[in-house]
Structure formats: C-alpha cells, structure tokens
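If you are new to this repository, start here. Below is one unmodified record pulled from the training split, so you can see the exact layout before writing a loader.
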Amino acid sequence: MAKKKIKIESPMQVIVQAFVQIVDAFRVKRNPLNGKELITNIPTQLVGNMTRSFVAVWTRDDGTKKVSLSEFQPARNLETGEKRKDLAGKFFNALRYGTIPKAIAEREFWYTLSYFAASICKGKIPTPDKRSGSSTIMSHFVRYWMESQGLSLESLKIVESSGAELTYTGVQFERMLGIFHDNGVDILENWDNSKKGQKGEAIDWV
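And here is the target side for that same chain:
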C-alpha cells in the first residue's frame, strides 16, 4: 500500500519562524577571539551561493514526501529555475517576512528543507579555525523543521555535475547533522553578543 503524501500545516508560519528565530540568534554572535561574525552575508550564504542536485525522501508516520531537484538553489528565476545570486537578498527576505504566495509556501518549505539537508552533506566539518558557518546555520533550520513537523529523512541522494552520486541513509545523515548542529549550539552558548541592523527587500512571485 502506497504511503500518503505528507501535508505541512501553515507552511508559511513554519518558514518564517525559522528564518526569524534562527537567523537572529546567529546574527548577534561574535567570535570572542577576533570579534568576527560566523558568516558575513547570511542571505547569500543560505539561499544564493551554490546549486545542489539531489533526491530527498522524507517520512512522517504513514506519509512520505519525495523532493527531486537538479542544479537548484532557493534564489532563482522562478520561471526558468536559473540560479540568481543577485536575488539572494530578496528571496531571503521573502522567506523571512512571509511574502511568499500561500499557494506555493509548502513547495518552498520542502525545497528549502531539502536544499539545506543536501548542503549539509556537502559541508566541511567544523574546525577550530573554520566553524563551517553556512552548514552550521542550515543544520539548525533542518533540525528545527524536522522536530517541529515530526519528520524523518529516509534517504538523501546527492548528484554531482560529473554524474557521480552518493546516497545517505537516514542514520548517516543524522550523524552529519549532529556534528553541525552541536557546533552551532556551542557557538550560540559561548560566543559574545552584538547587535546588527536588518534590511528588507520585496520580490514579485509568480
């Protein structure tokens, strides 16, 4: 018997909560050794810096959701799918301030969740000198969304432009996610606080 598709209730709220709470928590943190931010441009680093090709299979109870995307990044031309790094700020703020049309909010939730998960699998393990900022912040999004929505990752296949591919099981992914998430917890608990202003932009969705 085929599993039913997972339905996310209030996807806009789910997206906005993460983009406000998690981003704000990391934005104020400064490395106590040099006073620097974890990453200098959160919008670009999160939604407009790289493309990923992957197939993610998410499960919840008796439901499932498959997300298959090629050369995808959240900041893109909505008609052609072409990546648009120059639109990163607008896309980031659309996700942060909830200006996404309700009709596509759930789609964007699944796309962003899966993109972040795939990016974590490509991220470099944190070291004392390089704390792997974008993957670390993404891991907090993924953990938050998985726990708040009761989701589990069944499998995640990463496909490179060369054609090489590797599939992670849910257990393998959890191990990787834990490394980055724990790194983020350490930063949030032990780095100094600062304050930084916010900027807002709008985007015309289609």
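Two things worth knowing about this chain: Residues 4-191 form one domain. The first strand starts at residue 4 and ends at 5.
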